[in-house]
Design brief:
By secondary structure, this protein is α+β, with helices and mostly antiparallel strands. The protein is built from two helices and three strands.
Amino acid sequence: MGITEQIDDKLRTVFAPTRLDVVDDSESHRGHGGYQEGGESHFNVSIRSEAFAGMSRIQRHRAVHAALGADLIGKIHALALDIDE
């Protein structure tokens, strides 16, 4: 299972989102720091879930990072998050 699928699977399991888009944006970073051949280094994630109700922006980001876990986060060079209820 690739990193894109792992991100999707973990976020669906933890947050039961009403909307989730995980986009591998690595190719647009070719030649920049952190780029690796084959992609899966730079991601844009948009997620909507009632689980984020009442959380601050920082709490939401921390919750996503916790859900993904240190091992998976360690494989990602850049993770842009758009999080809302």
